[in-house]
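step: validate -> pass
step: tokenize input -> pass
step: predict -> running
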Amino acid sequence: MAAPSDRDSSLIDRDKVPSNTEVLTSADFSRNYSTNFLDSVNRKLPGVTLGDQTGNPFQRDLDYRGFTASPVQGTPQGIAVYQNGVRINESWGDVVNWDFIPEKAIDRVSLFPSNPVFGLNAIGGALSIQMKNGFTYQGVEGEAFGGSYGRVQGSVQAGGQKDNVSAYAAFESAYDRGWRDYANSSHVNRMYVDIGARNDDTEAHINFTGASNLLGNVAATPVQMLDQRWSSVYTWPQSTLLQLAFINATLNHNFSDTWSFQGNVYYRGFWQSHVDGNGTDVESCNRGRNLCIDGQNDNDPIYGPVGGPPVPNTLGTAFLGEIDRNNVATNSFGGTAQFTNTDRLLGHDNHVVMGVSVDHGFTKFNASSELGTVEQNLFVTGTGIFINQPDAGLSPVDLHATNTYTGVYLTDTFDVTNRLAVTAGGRFNLSQIELQDQTGLNPLLNSSNTFQRFNPVIGGTFKINPNMTVYAGYSEANRAPTPLELGCSDPNHPCMIDSFLVADPPLKQVVSHTVEAGLRGNWGQNARTGVLTWGLGVFRTLSDDDIIQVVSPLGVNNFGYFQNAGQTLRQGIEAKLDYRYERWNAYANYTYVDATYRSAITLSSPGNPNALTDPNNDDVQFVNVKPGDHIPGIPAHRFKAGAEYLVTDAWKVGADVNVVGSQWLVHDDTNQSPKVPAYAVVNLHTSYQITPNIEVFGLINNVFNQHYYLGGTFFETGGFASTTRGVPNLMAQLTDPRTFIPGMPLSAYAGIRAKF
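step: predict -> pass
step: emit ->
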């Protein structure tokens, strides 16, 4: 998709789109309501919930109808995210780094259900972010706010237009100490600059997004530790350094009243360094004299060939862990060329959009594991001894990945009558992915993969009366396996997810088939009655060859692999209301998502107390998933409501509630353990306009200080092994295999905003 401008003729009337689309404007992202971009999206959009795998407010998962856009490497991605017409799912793992987006510079956000026009990853939907420029924003604004857990954040934005030339810039900086124990602080610095020019027929922009962010991470914590201390953590340090240089040039040109062109070219440089303290599969062997993998086979030294010279134990009395490190460096570039025609066809209005896109990425990835010792506070200290045992699937990685994605698309919206509009079209996707091992030790990583598919879309809208429209549509979309998934799909050689890559059995591409239908409308058009907008819809997405992450059969925490899981189904309903009356503004929406497996599959599931044991190998635990079992980690019920009241012309107060239903623990694929409980969080906000140009604001999140879990999974109990025989394991008292991500306690923030 090419980047639209504020005068773009490629944009179609939303009421003619045969699906449930949603739009947020820059006002919805005000700090008056939330402290970050994702909270703003979650607050108003139906079907959206937020997950958390990192314990960091800048790195959460966005879930829409059971599909995910996540910044965490190894998370199967199902949502395409665009910024100014460029797909910003990173080339390596299709992750979305929300912390890169300068929030003050956002002009509007549009959410679309599954639509093939948005290319790869749009199996669950697409989120399109349009940024400000000097034509759409004029003035200067500064803002500062701070509050709980050391949060300090400031921003400045400025935009202006002189004749046919515009300029806009936004700069943001934030520090957050984090509310969990030890080191999960975050330092965020990002910027956005846009220069534009236009005349009667042409508009061109060049813009730059830059960021350098250091984020502290906290993984899920065993429930027994959380019961004792809500802010506790299980192994640290964990941190991620993320940097971005993203330049994009866009062009919109009208050849005539009915023909126009939209295009862009871009370069995106992405660099990531991740450090993660974890447990390890290394134990002492040979009566404590040596160090071996798993500790049960004295022929598996932690480096060198199996049966080779043993590795001496030089660590004295210590509990063993490891520090896993990986680095990603990606350079990607590409562009889109799109034409739009609005000539009447057979005397009827007609809107045709056709285009081609090419995206190319080159990634250098390397990873290593350093043996560490675990302190009593669960801090992992490196020892300088690196694990390198290829026969156990544990060796440093140095990999180059090249991917080229090509798409050709066309859609046509034809007005059969002035009340009935029909849309039809499709997109052809071609994905070419190559992996090349640079060490010479992992030849199985070398591969060349090609995926291709044509995805159709068809639908229609009918205006029952001027205030009510019915819509229905069918679409298909596909997602090619990422280089990360292709390199980690062998159950016999599992990977430290987002670290180790060892083998390349083939994965199939995911194909989704979506049907949705509904009603939308409005009532009341004046101040006396107020204005009510509403919508009610149903959706059903059947995915073939869905890709899931599976726990390593070796039973090592944080290790796993990817596999196709046959068919999965996500279906449900959505309902929404928005009412504005004089000084009142209120909204409510509800979504039900029924996410199930539709194929019988067997999955490795160590740590799961309900797993079966392989009769031929006591170390292998598995579960047999049946059609109808629910997909873990997807809450079925989502309800949001809020209201705001203008007490005086200057003073505004409001409240909102977010209710998320229960969900199965991740990797409880047979739904036998207790669910992660449902939760409800109430937030308050207020603002006061001191002068026309100065405003103060405040907000309180989780006002009742509820303790709740955002999600959960299993982990391998038993604690950390000692290098000395006979010494009990550290944290051996943790016998409950459940581990959870706790929600943030009560937090309060206040700030001031000035316009010039």
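step: describe -> Helices lie at 37-44, 223-228, 483-486.
step: cleanup -> pass
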